[in-house]
Design a protein that fits this description.
about 240 residues; alpha/beta; Rossmann fold; 2 domains; 7-stranded mixed β-sheet
Amino acid sequence: MIQISPFHPEIDAIWNAVAASGARSVAIVAAESGEGTTSIAGALARRAGLSMMADKSDGSRGEASSLLVDLNLARPAVARILGLRPLPGEIIRLDALGLAVLGDVGIAGAEGWRERSQLVSRLEAWKAEWGYVVLDTAPLLSGDSDIVPGTTAAAAADATILVTLAGRTPANRVREAREKLAACGANVIGAVLNDRDNPSLLTELDRETWRLAKMFPRQMANLRARLHRIPSLKARI
């Protein structure tokens, strides 16, 4: 998982869409593994928690306001990336991040959540305690062997966001994932094109200046320096 700032412009856009939808539980899903759901889920949960902490009428800060749940039981990553070693079912508070983490839901407890109604009941209990609940889910196309399938999590959550890794996931797999979401009745409010493995515009332009460096060394050096001073060229999706 790549740690993404909760105030990154793309995360801010996702958070605004979630807030506008009125959803208080959000499933972050992808067609296949490795597409970036954990990074997006972690940043969104932090963004939600920090926003709620800042909006408290009494001005208090210091209590986590969102819950991040790792429902990818076949390949859990949230606790490991955050350096946590939770007991099964243990919720660990990271108040400075505005976040609480359920990194090990416990296989025994989660087996009943294969049914949408059971997971909905669990989500309602979590929402009664936390402002927002963000679910990092199993891949939609990984098969039915997942303890909590991604489709079940998507159907149970108030809203769903589909993540696709640019340049890797075939279009037919994305279409299949969207069909699964439609079939399970998920409320898809947006999609994220993860450009993690593609170079930024700045990288591309910088590379082009080196092609002309032998002919125009001083001019290309000056151009590179100017390019690196433009923040928008460093933006990634």
